[in-house]
Amino acid sequence: MDIHIAIDALSALAQDTRLATFRLLVRHEPEGLPAGEIARQLEVPQNTMSAHLKLLADAGLVQSDRQGRSIIYRADLSQIQALTVFLLKDCCGGRPELCAPVIADLAPCCPAPGATS
């Protein structure tokens, strides 16, 4: 990932409404949510929400899809994965046990395919 793309993504998330929006969309993957429903759930005026969604989209963190009269927004999980890898790529200095706690914290919400509980 290019450093400028990472900075754009981190900048977009560095605001409470946009961070809440992204987290809400992550919880509603893969279906996504209409823009109006996002605004309603976060109690943000629709025109303000539109500006926030545009910023998130410009940073590559959300994607939109028109369905009839609605625009459905989804979190771009591949972009957040790339950002996370970018941030942690040089973690550990060759000592994976230092990064193990970070990976362990992700495991409960994201079990590996085929893993059983």
TrEMBL record:
The protein's name in its UniProt record: ArsR/SmtB family transcription factor
Any Pfam family hit: HTH_20
Please tell me whether the keyword Transcription regulation is annotated for this protein: yes
- Asked if the keyword Membrane belongs to this entry, the reply reads no
Q: Which PROSITE patterns match?
A: HTH_ARSR_2
Query: SMART domains attached here?
Result: HTH_ARSR
| Chain ranges of the HTH arsR-type domain | 1-95
Q: Which key words tag this protein in UniProt? A: DNA-binding, Transcription, Transcription regulation
From which source organism is this entry?
A: Lacibacterium aquatile
User: Matching NCBIfam families, A to Z?
Assistant: HTH_metalloreg
